[in-house]
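re: that chain from earlier
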Amino acid sequence: MDSPDTPPFPPVSLPRSEVRDLVSRSGREYRGFVARPAGPPPPGGFPVLYLLDANATFATVVEAIRLRAPRPEVTGVVPTVVVGIGYPVEGPYDRVRRTLDFTPPGSAQPGTGGADDFLAFLTRELAPEVERSTGADPARRILFGHSLGGFFVLRTLFTAPGAFRGYVAASPSTWWDARALEDAGRIRDRLARSPDEINVGALVRSIEPDFRLVDCLAGGTGRCTLTGRCRLTGILDGALHSFLSHLDKFTLADLLPGPDVPPNAIPIMIEEKRAP
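^ sequence. v structure.
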């Protein structure tokens, strides 16, 4: 006879799904959920949907897509990789962690302001690895968030519009910091100009969450954690300055082919070096 602690039946599981415990480069712990469609990926790769608060949303969304994907001509839903980002807790939400991850810097409220770090983890650490292992197409990323997660989705849309192909903000908590969204929206509004009025360097500065090139400088002190004699900080600062200065020489019009340029041509600037 089974003991009272032994479940009488096998646990329920979702087909072709898995759970991964993750640790970001900054040391924050997450729980990742991944569901793969049946069959091999199409030539361009599967679209991929990233879900926030996945402890609460993952199973529902995966099953909704699974039921509708077999008839895309009727439902408009195609087989999709679903990636959930949650936390190592038993309940549906970790309210402390989600408040930190979904809110922008600048607030005086304790336990907030981690949105930029979370976006960097999502787009630079998690997404490339998951997309490589699942056959997902990085050009077809969609971000979904609800409530405070929806607030994070809207801010990401305004500050890093190229990070995802699509954005879904369900009942976003815009009340949390409406001014932050207004400030982010001004970045978007600066794009409502002709291409020759939009400087590439200024655009990159406004939409990049940060320019942190190495994790050893993540503490913000500007000093190497191993030795005070390390010169890497100054070298990287100089390289970053040269990179941005070069972008400052271009506008979006320089990136667009002219009437006599083949569509796949890339404009190249050649600088002549002269001896002093």
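Residues 115-134 form the longest helix (20 residues).
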